[in-house]
Specification:
- The relative contact order is 0.17.
- Helices cover about 40% and strands about 25% of the residues.
- By secondary structure, it is an alpha+beta fold.
Length: about 325
């Protein structure tokens, strides 16, 4: 079997995180500049049925048999083997690297799983079709996050802007104009599963108030999609800021994120909000291209250890 490799992108949720878990729509886009990469090669001379995993970024250098049952990589490999009806481990080496920060709201677990599944299935001679890959990646997300919506794995697999709703699946969204975002690290790591659990507990205690905020987030998402597809920059910025207010009311921000959000807006960003699980992780700021350096400098001065620039490219609505 020849060596094969595959990659998968990070993701940004522009609008609707957390509310999407409760059936509301959410808008997510690929963050193609940050990627996870997997390469699989035959392990010549090794005993049959052994897989060795090298993943420096995850502090892994061990064999498949040594991985705990809840390990993401182990789960991804087993899901592929089950999908393909293969009951014996191939003898191979898996090399895995990622540029995507872990526990930071950028879809690292989904990207790692998708990259591994793409490379491993191709190595076995049966590359997975996108819909099957998406289904397996969702199962992997369930292991990591408990009750995920499915939005992370979907945007990572298809690498296109999507409007996602659990009851209706997803729709590819075509931006009417190029949009520039700066994405800043708050420096606080927080697993998405923890904030999802916190909100679920709050919802159970106070379904009326929390449920109303969640529905408001869903409405803002639809307004943001309209703005995105019509090239209405001010309306999109307003939706981002309003979504952040609601997330703050739900207790999903934190002082480090708030500091970065205020710094971005004070430096000229039209809209800014957290992205992902919240209580840490990353925030994003919608900017005009000429504001790039001043907003980036403000975010770094406000304490962001890393700031990324990404562009969501316009697409024609109909060719």
């Amino acid at each position: 079997m020849p060596a094969v490799s595959a990659t998968a992108c990070a993701k940004l949720i522009l609008l609707g995180e957390h509310a999407v878990v409760y059936g509301e729509p959410a808008l997510a886009v690929p963050f193609s500049g940050l990627r996870a990469r997997a390469a699989v090669e035959a392990w010549i001379g090794a005993p049959s049925g052994r897989i060795h995993i090298f993943a420096r970024d995850l502090d892994l250098d061990q064999e498949f048999s040594e991985l705990p049952e809840n390990n993401l990589i182990r789960s991804a490999l087993l899901l592929v083997l089950t999908e393909l009806g293969i009951d014996r481990l191939p003898t191979c080496k898996l090399h895995l690297t990622t540029e995507i920060p872990i526990s930071a709201g950028l879809g690292a677990s989904a990207a790692l799983a998708v990259a591994v599944m793409r490379a491993f299935s191709a190595f076995l001679g049966h590359p997975l079709a996108p819909e099957r890959l998406n289904s397996l990646a969702f199962q992997s997300e369930q292991l990591m996050h408990g009750t995920p919506s499915g939005i992370d794995n979907t945007v990572v697999v298809y690498e296109q802007p999507i409007l996602f709703q659990k009851s209706q699946g997803f729709e590819v969204i075509k931006p009417a104009a190029d949009l520039h975002f700066l994405v800043a690290d708050s420096g606080v790591k927080k697993a998405t599963a923890l904030t999802v659990r916190q909100l679920a507990q709050d919802y159970a205690r106070n379904p009326g108030e929390v449920g109303a905020l969640i529905k408001d987030i869903g409405q803002l998402t639809l307004e943001g999609v309209r703005a995105l597809t019509q090239g209405d920059f001010p309306a999109l910025a307003e939706a981002l800021n309003a979504n952040q207010e609601l997330l703050t009311m739900l207790g999903l921000s934190c002082p480090e994120l708030d500091t970065l959000l205020h710094a971005a807006r004070d430096a000229g960003a039209a809209g800014a909000k957290l992205t992902g699980g919240g209580k840490g992780g990353h925030m994003l700021a919608l900017i005009q291209p000429e504001q790039l350096e001043q907003v980036r400098a403000a975010l770094l001065e406000a304490g962001a250890p890393r700031v990324y620039h990404t562009v969501l490219k316009a697409e024609p609505s109909n060719a």
